[in-house]
Amino acid sequence: MYRPLFRQSTFEGRITIEGKDFTTTGDMMTIYAAESQGGIHMGNLHYLKSGEPLETLWHGLIWFDSAWENINLNLGRAGQTSDQNFYVVATARNQQEAYKVQARMSEQFGDGFAPRNNIE
Questions:
Q1: How many CB atoms are closer than 10 A to CB 43?
Q2: pLDDT digits (tens, 9 = 90+) for 35-46
Q3: 117 pLDDT exceeds 60?
């Protein structure tokens, strides 16, 4: 995570999800922290097909705290409707913990945080 003093924070690297091959192949775009509220940051997440021309395969939103200890991903395949998206919540070990993490992050971030459904 790069946090310049007077500019937008960015993350360059790779976020992988066990069992989701699209997170380990191809490329991932830089994440820009587009909004920050209550210590929770939100940005766009894009997984791309390797090579030219650039093609988004999966996209969504990511919410994370400053320490990257609580992370919520809302991901969907390019071209599908949002009701087919899935959510991944880290560092939750089960669905009950995931709902608690989301509730805490939602309270801190406020309006605009992801709904609580389709958690994987």
A1: 20
A2: 999 999 999 999
A3: no
